[in-house]
Amino acid sequence: MSRSPLPRLSSVVLVVAALAAPAAAAAQDRAPAERQQLLELAFTIGESHALRQLCLGAGDQYWRSRMVRLTEVEKADQAFDAQLRDRFNTGFAAGQGEFPTCDEDARRAAEQSARKGQALSAKLARAMRTASPDQGSPESVADEEAAR
């Protein structure tokens, strides 16, 4: 059995819970702490994108497409959308700068980034469920994953 270039954890969980938040909730309606968590998540997704591309090639757009989906779901105002994109790009640059080759260190960093993203996503999802307990089943990346 061959070893995957990246940990399985990083290929599934990072954004699932964050995108499970109700689509009607706009980023600007979130509490300041949640907005900060969204910015941290954008950085983490950018970092994960760089690490995944390092091991799978520049054509891989897995995490970039999840970031695009996050910005669509959050429906942020122009200023906050720009902040989210800037944090993604900063995370991408950080991931690229730290690891020049796909090695065991890069794989560990990808797994660590995934765990951080999973924790942030879960926190955001809990906050949204608490704020909107009567919402129906929200859109999520999990639905996309299940369809594959």
Features:
globular
Q: Can you walk through the features of this model?
A:
With 148 residues, the protein is an all-alpha fold. The chain has one domain. 67% of the residues lie in helices and 0% in strands. The chain contains 6 helices and no strands. The chain has helices at residues 8-12, 32-56, 62-74, 78-98, 104-131, 141-147. Helix 2 (32-56) packs across helix 4 and helix 2 runs antiparallel to helix 5 (104-131). The longest helix is centred in the C-terminal third of the chain and has 28 residues, at 104-131. It is globular. The model is unreliable at 7-24 and 135-148 (pLDDT under 50).
Q: Judging from the principal axes of the Cα atoms, what is the shape?
A: globular
Return the structural class.
mainly alpha
Query: How many strand elements?
Result: 0
Distance between the termini: 22 Å
Structurally, the number of domains stands at 1
Topology:
Layout lengths: L7 H5 L19 H25 L5 H13 L3 H21 L5 H28 L9 H7 L1
Helix pairs in contact: 2-3, 2-4, 2-5
In summary, what is this structure?
67% of the residues lie in helices and 0% in strands.
